[in-house]
Amino acid sequence: MSSYSSETPGNGRRVRFVTLCQQLLALAVVVAVLTPAARTVTMEVRPVQPVDVVPGDVSLRAAEFPSTVPTGEVDSEVDQYLLTPPRAKAQKLVSVRATEKSVGKGEAITSDVLPVDGYGTVGVTWAPAAAVGEDEIGIKVRTRTDGEWSDWTEAEYHDDHGPDPSTEEGKKARPGTDALLIGDVDAVQVKVATDDEAPADMKLAVIDPGTASDTAKQAPAIDTARVATEGDPVVEPPATEDPSGDDAIALQAGSSTPKPKIYSRAQWGADEKLRDKSSLSYYEVHGGFVHHTVNANNYTADQVPGIIRGIYNYHVKTRGWSDIGYNFLVDKFGRIWEGRAGGVDRPVVGAHTQGYNNYSFAMSAIGNFDVAGAPTAMVNAYGALFAWKLSLHGVAAADTSQKIGSKYFPAINGHRDAGSTACPGRYLYAKIPTIRSLASAAQKSFASREAEGNFVGGGTNDLLVRRTSDGRLFALNLGNVDGTWKVVSRVDTGVNVANAVKIYKAGDWDSDGYADMISRRKSDGVLFLYRGTGEGRFAAPVVLTNLLKNIGLLAAVGDVTGDGRPDLMAQPTGGSMRIYPGKGAAGLGTSSHNLAQSYAAYSPVKGSAHVPAGMLNEDGAPDSIIRDGNTIRLYAGNGPGGWAASRTLEVKATGYDWLLGVGRLGGNRQPDFIARDKATGRAYILPGTTNGWTGRIWLGQLGGYDLAA
Fold first, then answer.
1. Is the whole model's pTM more than 0.90, yes or no?
2. Crossing angle of the two packed helices 432-442 and 376-392, in degrees rounded to 10
3. DSSP element (H, E) containing 380
């Protein structure tokens, strides 16, 4: 998606293109007067000075004003004209709509003057078997309106923009240029220059995006604050008596990542019959890429749905992709549009950054930002969307080292950071630091995704333990003294949890800066929240919910939904593993506050204990370990969708009665675990790895306690 300049890779190819054209009088550049703006979209736009956006606005929002959109699917038309035969020496057998001349070892091809209907988009593709390097071919386009020709405009070609070649989608894909918007014109012509023989089966696609039969003024249809992951129904158990008499938890809620509103596929008139629904796939999101469409910049708000349909039809009907390549698009007015189908909050695999599609998402800016500055509204929309989307999948926008595929990248990148391209244009690329700052500021409640438990203060997480003799709760402060890990202090919390069947470190549930604890009452399964007040002390307990009685494998797993609040995961009797999103001041649900929206995280899980592992894998979201006797299985987190996959680890839990996640101790890259030998009461640190843990380090004698978290 590069724009041609002396700094752009492949510039030598473009110099050769000019040389070839100079050798052919028939291919001389036509100097013409530009047609009126009312009839054509100008493809060359004078650069403007980019506008600075001040980071730190956590009320960041995408544009949400009512827009004129189609009220139904819109039929589009794609005409394809053959420029070279589908195979060598087949010229006489097919109707080729172009003339060809040899120039040295290469070829110069000029298409016929071809008609354009509607608000046109064009692109040139060729046979998949033809391996053509980016610097081995040059393609230019001009248009005619009312008898007058425009200047020639480069049609960008980059072989790393599309689906991964090893995928089924990639195997069916045709190489070609990016879609080029030409607008409301009468005719189009292209010329091609190659270093060697021109690729076979070269075609010019001319796309009429169609006209909606009915339109309406509508606000964005997708409110991400109300999105239900995987279409799973909201669970609303019947209200029951509140044992504590408290209708709500009187806490101050922390702010969470803003949730943008998005125009749906239906609102740009997507013909859902075109896409290949069977090829829809999901993987992981570790980062995001900023693209641009290399289209014109002087479009109107009402023209945007048609522009997106043109790109969609080109990607599907001409390039052979399963759907539009981008996950999202954004226009110059700051409106965000849903791209590839499958769920805006899901890790849908797109076709945008070859080699990295499985591990990222992309939003493409409609326009050419190598020749014009990115509007403030567009930059703000990038900040809002990237903050929200990354938070869903456990990725901090300011992270500088996310593993995306086989390499490490910042969480937010330009397309050029992953390939030989100038995309997303020099002006938009210059705004990526601003986008990172905006997104990071919007994620201000995103400091920790893991269920940390620093109750006493200091640099490490603590252990909470219940004394067997009287049910008294103590916080054991861990520290490294002269190279040796040990319990450096024991703090009496003043809390008695003799009636608890389980205790859980809850992270900073109420967003007040102090770690909190949850207990589960032995008699009826009611969950109580103990708000940490610092220095190992807690406020009086309040009921968190009495609606999770018939559940197993309950755990406080940290912020798996990415909204800035810790969450719970549990498995109802006879059901699947589910996520119960934390609601801060609203708790989880009492008689007056129905249980928060919950949804499936995974299929039914068999096990005896659920251990929050933190971010054990480098996949951007908190993971879990399920203990089934001595067998350990790792369930990899994947944002709001719960768990992405599971695998049995080689490590065993033989002889341990405790196996606890304790976060990162020291400088370990992965979070660690603590285990206690059932027979001796000796406790050990198990240094975390992506495969569970390796070895063990003596921590101390911890007999005399019967519960721990």
1. no
2. 50
3. helix 376-392
